[in-house]
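Continuing the series of single-chain predictions for the mutant panel. This is the parent chain; the variants come on the following pages.
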Amino acid sequence: MLATLVRKPFHKPGWVYEEKYDGDRILAYKEGHRVRLLSRNAIDRTRQFLHIAAEIRRLRPKRLILDGEMVVFDHKGVSRFQLLQQGKGDPVYAVFDCLFSEGKDLRPEPLSARRATLRESIDSSKFLLLSRRLAKRGFEAYRVAKRRGYEGLVAKASSSPYRSGRSTDWLKVKVHHEDEFLIVGFTQPTGARKYFGALLLGAYEKKKLRYVGKVGTGFNQRTLASLFREFQALIRKESALSEPVAEKGVTFLAPKLVAQISYQEWTGDGKLRQPVFLGLREDKRPQEVHLPEAQS
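Parent structure:
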């Protein structure tokens, strides 16, 4: 179940407001002693997070399906996608829903009932966390998220069942601008930098791939080298963008890699202002990368 982005905070009776985590979405499946951790696009991440699998294995229910976010918190207790990508810190599984427990399919049940089962099933520990509720009223929850430096909040209708796909029963409001974009090319390095200078970024607007600017910060030497290796199989002669790009020395790429980018705002001509590269999103398909609602 995916949340729909809205532009402004709000309050609705019968809704709850949770912290929006900045990490990788993971579904956890427990059948007896067997535990599997799968990404949104069904990539098995169990071996990557063996300590999380061990925590889930010890939970009381023999059969369980959990939905949550794999995150790494900084020293202020704020989840940071970049820390998870760079392997810095200990990943924690922040669980916000329970789809199945013992012999019962909980998806038709309201969120309030699923949350109650989740609370009974989860023993909070160093690596397993019940998702945090922010405040009872939406506007206050937004102020809490902003004050604490969270990415945003997710508002959910307490009466909503769990339905796969994008839903208006779950709405997300961002405090900081952060989105996924496709890497469509790179420029040549200058000065002491190796491998490449900046990445050209794009996003789909209906069926057209629009250029949204370039990002040249957020890389270390290891990131530069690993990205450059991935680029080699994607090099193409022609741009995949629907418009020409006024950049010199560009090597174009097939739009297959999804990058997580933070940015200050959008410029008047539809480009990202002060973008920073945070990492690659292996859990997102290129076809899912569309312009944020505010720009489409």
